[in-house]
Write a structure and sequence with these properties.
Two copies of one chain form a homodimer.
Chain A lengths: L5 E6 L1 H4 L6 H12 L4 E7 L3 H10 L5 E5 L7 H12 L3 E3 L1 H14 L5 H5 L2 E3 L3 E3 L8 E6 L2 E6 L3 H19 L5 E9 L3 H13 L5 E8 L2 E9 L3 H19 L3 E3 L5 H12 L3 E5 L5 H7 L8 E6 L3 H8 L3 H7 L4 H15 L3 E7 L14 E8 L2 E8 L4 H21 L1
Parallel strand pairs in A: 1-2, 1-3, 3-8, 13-14, 13-15
Antiparallel strand pairs in A: 4-5, 6-7, 7-8, 9-11, 9-12, 10-11, 15-16, 16-17
Amino acid sequence: MKEILIKNISIGDELLIGQVVNTNAAWLGEHLSEAGFQLDSILTIGDSENAILNAFDACMDADLVLVTGGLGPTADDITKPTVCKFFDTELEFCQAAYDNLVSLFKRRGFKMSERNRGQAMLPKSCEYVPNTYGTAPCMWLEKNGVAFVFMPGVPFEMKGIFTDELLPRIKERFQAIPYEKRVIMTTGIGESFLVDKIKDWEYALPDFLSLAYLPQYGMVRLRLSGRHEDARLLHETLDREVAKLVDLISEYIFSMQDQPIERTVFELLNSKGMTFASAESCTGGNIAHVITLIPGSSVVFKGTAVTYATPMKTKVLSVPAEMIERCGVVSQEVVETMATGVRNLMEVDFGVATTGVAGPSGGTEENPVGTVWIGVASAKGVVSKRFNFGKDRENVINRATIAAYEMLRQQITD
Amino acid sequence: MKEILIKNISIGDELLIGQVVNTNAAWLGEHLSEAGFQLDSILTIGDSENAILNAFDACMDADLVLVTGGLGPTADDITKPTVCKFFDTELEFCQAAYDNLVSLFKRRGFKMSERNRGQAMLPKSCEYVPNTYGTAPCMWLEKNGVAFVFMPGVPFEMKGIFTDELLPRIKERFQAIPYEKRVIMTTGIGESFLVDKIKDWEYALPDFLSLAYLPQYGMVRLRLSGRHEDARLLHETLDREVAKLVDLISEYIFSMQDQPIERTVFELLNSKGMTFASAESCTGGNIAHVITLIPGSSVVFKGTAVTYATPMKTKVLSVPAEMIERCGVVSQEVVETMATGVRNLMEVDFGVATTGVAGPSGGTEENPVGTVWIGVASAKGVVSKRFNFGKDRENVINRATIAAYEMLRQQITD
């Protein structure tokens, strides 16, 4: 099966001065891969006729050229006339594009400007592809057997059009090679230790499968993916290899879904009809923040006491001042009392607590920057653990948050 | 003055399948701009000899080609031999690169592998540029008057080498055109209304200045920047134009520094020796989270009660159950009582409270999704305001957080 050659041209001065990061190209690369296609290259250029014409010329060896950007109501002035020049055509009024603009403005209750009206002028020889997400048109043109597709640069519009309109057309026109992936979420083990544990398995993988390590704060996502003309063989091989992988590292896997750990905890608690609350010192409310991003999280999450100032640990969470004095605020005794305190205060099944030194200052010999105590209180009692999450403040906060959810998850499933 | 032509080649399969977003190119674009240079184009390709040779050929019209990626201990196998082919040279052992590797491994306490040793083999004709950030070498080569610079793709290494080693060499070798920028942070006004207020001023700006609107949740950063051979003229013109701009929109400006609003609040409170705490319902701890990312924030921030479950508003913040029953949990009465409650509980100068409907469900006719009440209690009493932040949950949380800080800022400066 012949692989088709796909290139992306990203147009926009804002991409060259670093005002905007080109997330569109990465998104296209990912979604093409998952649909069984491969992106060969990405060429990012500014809003100038010369740069655009050179880029078009450089893509004449491709089968399909996906052009993003350069179609807003201002950049329009350069891109569309340049397209006409390259395709040897001229602009003409497109009724379907105009109707789309009218209905869009009507829906939003805005008045249409002359400049917007001009957005309905399209190259004569193009196929108009509807954009229900915004005012920029989407166009499909061909030259010497090369298909050029022009999409707006606004990510939300580009993604919508590509998914709704373009990908189906591309699949119809070109032959894809079946693709499948599996994601395995791990935590509690660093990337290099993970490599050691699974490298023999990885080396023995069939050619058409590949493994990617995607480390994030305190966890490593493993992505096993492959392409094969025989979709069934691909699927079965993935099943088999994932089973082997799970055997090797089962104690570090918190989900076989590509989702953050707080969602796994949310689903677990929700299925059991149980609740939790947090008492946060060094994580500063981040445990609460990440769970409350999930719609409906109020079913399992009842509240948080961020006791950033030490006296508040006594006042709000009933940690005896004497204990803080005796053991220090970053200690096993204090974190366990905080966890129990918030469990009682918020009347929940699980109380999760953190206390530590996020840095960059505040470290001591006994508790250097990065030291974090995490505790989880439940009907079974309290468990706690001491960690060191390094010197970077944001890193400490994020890794402590993930470790707290992992400890909570273990208590729920125990 | 002749502008030099700079191109970037980004090498790496991971960029084409969307596993990694090319933030390096954006960073280079931004930092070249600020140093008075301009990036002409970015070409992203995979780890293959053919793609690399074609990309090199396509850059022979440039003065300077910045190549990122393709130099890790594995990708190495392709890039370096390809470089030798293109520059008609061969690999030889480089003592300086080897010494750098040895000292790096010594510092980290790791053993050097054979593969790492291979990283000291460099093209004969290259100038070796030290990389103190990692194992990949940085190389400078020339062909027919075009300078090719090879940098590692790991962002932290690339940024370090570029800043420490390369930018000084580039400045020495090529002529920059002076660049200067100013950032004005606004909140409480949408982008389109801002455009209306300042468009006459914007149209009258001299050619060499340009304005960028960079909207983020609930605020708009304005960046006025320019390039001019006469640095003093540029500086004075910026001074004059910024002064005019400030006159037009002073009530919306919260900072002339490029920083988030919580940092402005932190600096204000810190300078006055004052403190605050938050009582959060719909923002779910995000007010606490963003301030605690700032090192030293414990001086001004004392704590938070996230009372996600309604009964906790009564238990922790002393909001009468009768009031919640009578006025509803999303109401002026409740938010003001929460603000006062947390001010008393945490013994601070300012209490900030939020209650609202983050969505996507839970909206009513009276309080549709996106409705948020924000209150600030201080020695002068309580102020409160009702907002609607739209339908997207994350957006509601982020915008409510920024609006809360803006209300707090106004109370501090009042």
